[in-house]
Design goal:
One of its GO terms (molecular function) is DNA binding. One of its GO terms (biological process) is DNA recombination. The chain is mainly alpha-helical. Among the domains are: 121 residues, no CATH class; 174 residues, hpI Integrase, Chain A (Orthogonal Bundle), CATH 1.10.443; 34 residues, no CATH class; 64 residues, no CATH class; 73 residues, no CATH class. 49% of the residues lie in helices and 7% in strands. It is built from 36 helices and 18 strands. The strands form eight sheets. Strands 1-2-3 form a three-stranded antiparallel sheet, with no helix packed on it. The chain has a three-stranded antiparallel sheet with strand order 16-18-17, with no helix packed on it. The longest helix has 30 residues.
């Protein structure tokens, strides 16, 4: 019926075109001709495949210029047309074509280097063969030449490849660096992200994508848009693809997700027809749906599920996030936790989920869920890792010892969480991003022969950023190897036990238990005890414990065994049972939502966009509500307020006094307490007079009791009324600068704001010139002394002894003008200069008289 409707609609469209005017029909024919011409050279491969083919073509062009097929002159080569280049790259003579392309593959096998090893793999060389054959067929087809024999062309290239693989010892595959991210790694990354993220709504979207990938084993291109073209055409997960319904159990929800984009980098209509319509769409039901009411509002159905962030990572937008950005975010969070970012991708989550599903539901069901063809071995070849799931030694040796099996299972568990077990500690991460990183960056720049001279400042910053990233990778690899070598068995066991820990879930569980404790209303019936007999009065299930002597079990030997009940409050088993009490699901879910909204784990403070109240004001009961409700969006203003007089103990005492004696006369509270019944208390005109009285009071004037009360309130503490005003801070800074300027004038030592360079650095515009040469200064008149002698006075040379007046020790107390003229005005003594050597920081070069 659907086919009939389609035919009728097509017939109607054709009838409408025939009945239309000639101009519209002419435009239709012209557009069809243009589409036919465009289809002649249409490249339908995936964008990643097209980019790889373009790179291989550029390499082939450079090789042809190298062997003289194309001109080596840049001007001549730039003026050549595409038709001329194609005729030389892929000549009409098939023998010449086979010869050029075979030489190119041998050259690649001989000179190209792999990413992780010295030689490229045979698999990579196969990609060169595929690209060369594609461009050769395309070139001959565009030039209307006879078709190239595919089988013969393939055999010629394969012969050259096999010779190169054997002669240059090419490996078939590279080192396997496929990693797996499971629940333990996700817990660690989510905890770290919740603590440090400046944009919680954006971070939650990424956490949602991680969880969806973990539960459904979906590809990143099925959750987010794999490229901008897919983002424009809606090929990503939207809220319309998600259905959230309530279940019969209170607090539980069921989610149904429909993935419309399954394989984004290989969309072949011919293969999709063979697979069938059923395999073109994947529906993942997290739990069986029972309620038909969808909880997602209609205005959000067409919006993307995972969105981009705003400028500078703040806020969120309504644009769909690209899968590449999802991968970058995961790498950055992995690096912050201490993982190697080079080994972590979003496919690591899919790979670990595939292993777990294969153990639970079998390989065939896992293959169907991951949208792999039934007749392929992609799952076993690229995803499954049998060695990390089977206790081989226990199975092959028929080991029936439970302890041995349990030990091997523990080792397998650690092997399945290699990333989490070997995550760098906080101390190691601090060493990476400290002075060691700066020193390595300077060393790499100094030893770089291709330093970009004469470039703009922005290009130089980009170069230094790339060098810094390379330095981080080097230090990270060194720290990982060092930590693995130094890790003890106790450290390994502690990390293994901590795999199930989650700070967020611990917080949710703690809040849930607190909520349960607050809601419980425990009523205990009071049971009386007879004083004389010690027995319970009324109905009670409790029984009195027997005497200790009655609990002794006698035996033939001298050992006595005492049996006691273990239902006391202090027993370990009872405490463990209480700790393991199950928390209702709806209570845990509610507190989980509250934790996401409030995020009490966050240590990031964005005061500018999220003003905050003064914490001291909130905890002070003497502060007015107006001051408590005041917000600050500047950290310096908040810090100045917290260090001001308002939060001194003296100001707190004044506010408490004013609140207590609001409608009374201003009197001294200590005098009022210590006065006699008929004594009078002095009344003060204002608080300043009262403060002056209390500060000047003493034991001799007002008595010991008055002084004791004053001391109890903290009047004698050093910080009772001390505070630093912003004006005083500014004044201190000005005084410090004045003293520094005076020292410069007196000593002649000029300070500089230019940072010292501890390693040579190439000049930005002058090739061959370096800045900051740190070689030791060894010219005539310079002596090297240990660092311990730096603080000792310099011995005056004998040639200057005649210029020094001899004074007596008792003259040291005379005025300073006594020492005028000790050194002659025409003396050639000059200030001491020091230079730290780079190789030995314990030695110092001291200039003994001559200037630099």
């Amino acid at each position: 019926m659907a086919a009939g409707r389609a035919l009728r609609s097509l017939d109607q469209a054709m009838e409408a075109d025939l009945q239309g005017d000639e101009e519209a029909l002419f435009d239709l024919v012209e557009s069809l001709e243009a589409d036919k011409v465009e289809a002649a050279g249409f490249r339908w491969q995936a964008s990643s495949t097209q980019r790889r083919q373009d790179r291989k073509l550029q390499n082939y062009e450079k090789f042809c210029r190298l062997i003289g097929v194309l001109s080596r002159d840049d001007n001549v080569f730039a003026n050549m047309s595409d038709q001329e280049k194609a005729s030389m790259l892929f000549p009409d003579d098939l023998g010449k074509l086979y010869d050029q392309t075979s030489k190119f593959l041998i050259f690649v096998a001989r000179r190209a280097e792999g990413r992780w090893q010295k030689r490229i793999t045979y698999t990579t060389l196969m990609q060169y063969r595929e690209a060369i054959m594609f461009w050769a067929f395309r070139s001959h087809d565009e030039r209307k030449l006879p078709d190239i024999p595919t089988g013969r062309f393939w055999r010629k290239l394969t012969q050259a490849m096999r010779l190169a693989a054997k002669k240059y010892n090419l490996p078939v595959f590279g080192p396997r660096r496929a990693t797996q991210i499971g629940l333990a790694e996700l817990r660690q990354m989510i905890d770290a992200d919740m603590i440090s993220t400046p944009n919680l709504p954006f971070a939650e979207r990424h956490h949602l994508a991680w969880c969806i990938a973990r539960v459904t084993a979906a590809r990143p291109g099925s959750i987010c848009a794999s490229q901008k073209f897919h983002a424009q055409n809606g090929m990503f997960l939207t809220w319309r693809d998600v259905t959230i319904t309530r279940s019969k159990e209170y607090g539980k929800f069921e989610v149904t997700i429909v993935f419309r984009s399954l394989k984004t980098n290989k969309n072949d209509p011919e293969q999709n027809v063979k697979k069938g319509q059923k395999n073109m769409q994947l529906t993942c039901i997290i739990m069986p749906p029972r309620s038909p009411v969808n909880l997602i509002k209609a205005e959000h159905l067409d919006k993307p599920l995972i969105v981009k962030s705003g400028p500078r990572g703040l806020g969120i937008t309504e644009d769909a996030l690209l899968s590449s950005d999802l991968n970058k975010y995961l790498k950055r969070r992995a690096e912050k936790v201490g993982y190697d970012p080079a080994q972590v991708t979003t496919y690591s989550i899919r790979r670990r989920t595939a292993n777990d599903l294969a153990q639970t539901i079998g390989v065939e069901q896992t293959r169907a869920l991951m949208n792999h063809d039934p007749d392929t071995r992609t799952l076993e070849r690229y995803y499954l890792d049998v060695s990390s799931t089977l206790p081989l030694s226990a199975l092959t040796t028929d080991d029936a010892d439970p302890a041995g099996v349990e030990l091997e299972q523990s080792s397998l568990r650690a092997q399945s969480h290699v990333i989490a077990i070997n995550a760098l500690s906080n101390e190691a991460r601090q060493r990476i991003h400290g002075p060691a990183l700066n020193a390595l960056v300077r060393q790499l720049i100094a030893n770089d022969e291709d330093y970009p001279y004469g470039v703009s400042s922005q290009e130089r910053k980009n170069y230094e950023r790339r060098v810094r990233i390379a330095a981080v990778k080097i230090l990270l690899s060194d720290e990982v190897q060092k930590q693995r070598q130094e890790m003890t068995q106790w450290d390994w066991e502690q990390r293994l036990d901590a795999l199930k820990n989650s700070k967020l879930m611990d917080l949710v569980l703690e809040k849930a238990k607190q909520a349960m404790g607050a809601d419980e209303d425990l009523d205990f019936e009071e049971v009386g005890v007879d004083v004389n007999t010690g027995e319970f009065l009324g109905e009670s299930d409790e029984e009195a414990e027997a005497d200790l002597e009655d609990l002794v079990e006698t035996s033939d030997d001298t050992t006595w065994t005492i049996s006691r009940d273990t239902d006391e409050v202090g027993d370990v088993e009872a405490v463990n049972e209480e700790d393991e009490a199950e928390v209702p699901y709806h209570v845990a879910a509610k507190n989980f939502m509250i934790a996401l909204l409030e995020n009490p784990m966050s240590e990031h403070e964005d005061i500018k966009n999220n003003p905050k109240h003064c914490p001291k004001c909130e905890s002070d009961d003497t502060i007015s509500d107006e001051l408590k409700n005041k917000t600050y969006n500047n950290p310096s203003h908040l810090r100045d307020h917290m260090e001001s007089y308002v939060h001194t103990p003296k100001a707190r005492w004044v506010r408490r006094y004013e609140a207590y004696y609001a409608n009374d006369d201003i009197v001294c509270p200590y005098c009022a307490t210590t006065r006699s019944e008929d004594g009078e208390v002095q009344i003060y005109s204002d608080m300043k007079s009262l403060m002056r009285h209390i500060e000047r009071s003493s034991t001799a004037k007002q008595g010991e009791e008055h002084d004791r009360l004053k001391e109890e309130d903290g009047w004698y503490n050093e910080d009772f009324g001390q505070f630093v005003t912003p004006r005083k801070k500014s004044r201190d800074m000005q005084e410090k600068r004045k003293r520094r300027s005076s020292v410069q004038l007196e000593t002649g030592v000029q300070y500089s704001a230019i940072q010292e360079l501890f390693a040579p650095r190439p000049h930005a515009a002058l090739p061959g010139i370096v800045l900051g040469d740190s070689k030791q200064y060894t010219r005539h008149g310079t002596t090297t002394v240990p660092r311990s002698e730096l603080g000792k006075p310099l011995i005056i040379p004998p040639r200057h002894e005649s210029a020094i007046k001899k004074i007596r020790i008792e003259d040291a107390t005379l005025p300073l003008d006594m020492f005028e003229g000790i050194i002659r005005a025409d003396s050639s003594i000059k200030p001491v200069r020091m230079h730290l050597a780079e190789d030995d920081q314990s030695d110092v070069s001291r200039d003994s008289g001559e200037d630099y």
